[in-house]
Amino acid sequence: MSIPGLHDWLDSPQGRYIVAWECARIDAMVADVFGYNALQLGLPELDLLRENRIPFRQKIGEPDEQHAVDTHCDLRQLPFAANSIDLVVLPHVLEFYDDPHQILREVERILIPEGQVIIAGFNPLSLWGLRRRFMRREAHGFPWQGQYLSPLRTKDWLQLLGFEVERPQFGAYRPPCRTQHWLQRWQWLEMCGERGWPMLGGVYLLRAIKRVHGMRLILPKWKSKTARAKALAPVAQKETPHHGH
Question: What class does CATH assign to 6-210?
Answer without folding.
Answer: alpha beta
